[in-house]
Amino acid sequence: MYQPNPIILREYDIRGTYGKNLFEADATWLGEHFGSLLHDNGGKTVVVCRDGRSSSPALHAVLCNALIDCGLEVLDIGVGPTPMSYFAGFELNADATLMITGSHNPKDDNGIKITLRNKPFFGTQIQNLLLQEVTKKPGGNYTEHKDVFDKYVKRVLLRHTFKKPLRIAWDAGNGAAGPVIEAFCKDLSKHSHVPLFTNIDCNFPNHHPDPSVPENLSHLIAAVKENNCDIGFAFDGDADRVGIVDSTGHIIAGDELVAIISHAILQDAKGGTIIADVKCSNHTFNAITAAGGKPVMERTGHSWIKQAMIQHNAIFAGEMSGHMFFKHGYYGFDDGLYAAIFLLNYIQTLEVNFSDLVAQLPKAYSTPEIRLNCNEREKLQIIHDLKKKLTDAGKSFNEIDGVRVENTYGWWLVRASNTQSALIVRAEGSTEQDLQTILKELKAFGIKIDR
User: Fold this and answer.
1) Which residue numbers are catalytic?
2) Residue span of the structural domain in which 242 resides
């Protein structure tokens, strides 16, 4: 019986390099095992969507066939961003969604994100598919639902209320966000638009679609400055994350964006609970409190955040990486495109320019998100050893996700990435001198970074 390479059974999804450790056989395996699980538990319908990567059509074809063989009805919504697949789960009242995407990973990578009854399917649920008995059933069917695209665009724009014209730059990075951005530019005709790289191209010829990496925002920054834009948006390959620059070309950090959006949402939902991930600045949690909200720190990862939002009945959540999750007024999933429209609405109500608002944010003396490459086994061992060193040294730490050490003068974090073979490191001080002290402390515990 076929078994997938264990390395592709990731924490949040199925993910690997096509032709190396990810093959059509793996999509068939997932379709048979997840399809059997779904059917055995009374499920009947599953949404399937795919991004524009070169391997996506082949994976899509065998995945759909496997699901049909399990007696399920496949609701194919075509090519689109991951948030559109989540939306389709609600719109079509489907029992599950399967999104074929490599997200922000290199062009030869691909994978499948899964939801079950509009909730994330991840962690041990994915691992337990190895134990699932395959039971093929008759009665499967396949239907196309191409109208979901227009319905998704209409739903995202539902909250848009025009107040004053803005000039907006959009960078789709040749990813799945492109057609949606083109629709935005057409429907939001009272604004001026500067669209970049909206044609889907699996080779990503202009830059890699990962807005959390500053180099990938150079085209957007140039477009904002050259066209005197009020704001610029960039999206990752499947558009569940957003990156933002203001009119000066300044890159808004993910945790700064969480603070800004939290303030806006709390104007309508005073006292609501808002979640930020463990990589976010203390300034972010303080800003949520100051705006009348209840901040909660949770582990990084879109699946974990969604689960925590349900547990805490949170109205909003955000991650340093650019995942923004809106429950107040929306569905609760991460949607970079919705985040952009939400922010456009908000800045139209401001008496100051968006860049002025950004300038008023507390100055953070911090490192960016630093990736230290290491293999899967090594990164986990380093975290284990680090916890022992801290315990032996009598240092207290938060281990909700890796290790976060708080001091009176700042904090530092080391965690294992769940999407890459890397450690993620971040540090912040109250002053530049405090930051240097924290970096020395990191080094003393065996974590050395160049800065």
Assistant:
1) 103
2) 167-247
